[in-house]
Amino acid sequence: MQEQHITLAHGNGGRFMRELIEQLFARQLASPGLDTSSDAATIQLPDGRVMLSTDGFTVKPLRFPGGDIGSLCVHGTCNDIAVAGGDPVCLTLNAFIEEGMPVAELEQLVASIGLAASESGVQIVAGDTKVVPHGEGSGVYFATTGIGIRPAGVTLGMDRIREGDQVLVSGPVGDHGTCVMLAREEFGLRGDLRSDAASVLPLTRAIRELPGVRFMRDPTRGGLATVCHEIMHATHLEVVLDGPAIPVREPVQSVCEMLGYDPLFLACEGRVVAIADAHAADEVLALWRELPGGIDAARIGQLGAGTPRVVIETELGGRRILEELQDDPLPRIC
Amino acid sequence: MQEQHITLAHGNGGRFMRELIEQLFARQLASPGLDTSSDAATIQLPDGRVMLSTDGFTVKPLRFPGGDIGSLCVHGTCNDIAVAGGDPVCLTLNAFIEEGMPVAELEQLVASIGLAASESGVQIVAGDTKVVPHGEGSGVYFATTGIGIRPAGVTLGMDRIREGDQVLVSGPVGDHGTCVMLAREEFGLRGDLRSDAASVLPLTRAIRELPGVRFMRDPTRGGLATVCHEIMHATHLEVVLDGPAIPVREPVQSVCEMLGYDPLFLACEGRVVAIADAHAADEVLALWRELPGGIDAARIGQLGAGTPRVVIETELGGRRILEELQDDPLPRIC
């Protein structure tokens, strides 16, 4: 491409758009499944139940320590398939690009998409680009849709959760939310915290076929607390969290204390919350702790027969109700 | 929902977002396949080759005579599957909603998605919403990804196009582009033109299994001229269009003449361009003309062995080269 910045003509269907797609997107995302001259991709699916998941990404800033909106839009959608027990196979990609965006910056983000896709073993098989006028759109928004396959032996679901089940988390919570917040440099704070954004496939594959594993979810928008609320809503059980057992990194804790946030409500992008019976819980923790992404895995609570609510037991033995998230000081975190 | 306008809290993963999804999106898009509490939808696919297509929508204004961004985001993606010879089965939906958007307006657009999906026989099986700050996003952008099935008997592709094949179009071109342009009321022009936005499935199903039908495409962004350029690029054949034979409605012609546009470059959202051999061409036209969406179907050109380019023969017998679209005066048309 000769141009240095994206223009509205890159969205018009003509020569500029063809060059953008051929010379930038297709070059970075080359795969046997991607034919930019066809209206629909034809794909071959392995055996198993077909799964679909979709997610939009509007993170600001577009790049942050540990990732960018490109890697995030691959991992985010693949992780949704992973926690549902499946293996992602392919992705489609939508880009809403703001007029004036430097072509070199867009190219870096698309390269990051290509790299994350290849790490996760998925192909980008179809895509679409739109250009919106300068001032709308904030750089770029991406949306990805993933197709996955759930192996026959995997049967996970919130309906399988029972009283007495344990709540497990694969690592510290709140890293992504805090890291993106710091990267905005609005608060005059700095830190060397990295986002946890990553594929959770190794974590989910390791445990998804254990009979006592009931359910998995990645605590993204709304954080760990929101996953607990979703489980409480669906099961009508009481979720009792063991406060001191929940892993939170020291810099996350400090930043949250300074700014008045609760890390339990901040997004993670590479963690898994699993619900398992008491027997399987030990196995899950042992399996996770052998993996690079699960070293700090912890048992952080259990499901009880009390009033349906989410409570957290504090260090001093007190109990505090964790309300459902209402207002949010952190838009555009993922 | 109690709120009258979308707030950033509707995108945070908490209570407001849950209510937005449960009370607005899920209520309008209810289907057996849509479970808003799961990370990934499990779908059952009929036999045949699986197809995938994706499209983003940024049209301005959000509503126009004959449709809105809601109906457009269903038809647009289903039509891409239809022209590739498939039957759309299900869709995923991404919404990027601008803070401050009236909830009632969003609800109308989502209702329109539901109606268009049910007309096309597809289910919305997964979705995601993001809220972006006021000033970004221009109301709402949608992205849809469609899964379709191509029956075993259908073999379409640009590689099947041969010298001597005919170019056919199912109806007048440029209606959608002109209609949206008029709906912006920037030019002080008015008219009773309606967008052609509609499902093209009846048109594609009628002809896709005829042996002499080589290829189909819907002339959206970049219009009929851009489809001809794509065919020329892929086949290295000369595309010779018969100018007077190309159906263009009178109001489209007048508006284009006044504003200096060429209707051949304006988007259609309910038309099909088909390439067929001479024998099948007659059959296609006869079949299309029996359908409500194909009454004005016409033979508009043919593929020749001359220099690879797109030329148009004028009424007076002259020949004019139709250049590839470069700059575009009409952003955000679909």
Kindly list the characteristics that best describe this protein:
homodimer, 334 residues, alpha+beta, 60s Ribosomal Protein L30, Chain: A, Phosphoribosyl-aminoimidazole Synthetase, Chain A, domain 2, 2 domains, 7-stranded mixed beta sheet, 4-stranded mixed beta sheet, 8 helices, 14 strands
Strand proportion of chain A, as a percent range, falls in 15-25%
Distance between the termini of chain A: 29 Å
**How many β-strands of chain A, per DSSP?**
14
Helix content class of chain A: 25-40%
Domain tally of chain A: 2
Task: Point out poorly predicted stretches of chain A.
Answer: none
Count, helices of chain A: 8
Can you list the strand order of the major beta sheet of chain A? Answer: 9-11-8-12-10-13-14
The oligomeric state is homodimer
Structural class of chain A: alpha+beta
Sheet of most strands of chain A: 7 strands, mixed
At the first level of CATH, what is the class of the largest domain in chain A? Alpha Beta
Largest interface: A-B, 83 and 83 residues
CATH homology superfamily name of the largest domain in chain A: PurM-like C-terminal domain
Looking at the structure, what is the overall shape of chain A? globular
CATH architecture of the largest domain in chain A: Alpha-Beta Complex
CATH topology category name of the largest domain in chain A: Phosphoribosyl-aminoimidazole Synthetase, Chain A, domain 2
Roughly what is the average pLDDT of chain A, rounded to an integer? 92
Order of helices and strands of chain A: HEEEEHEHEEEHHEHEHEHEEE
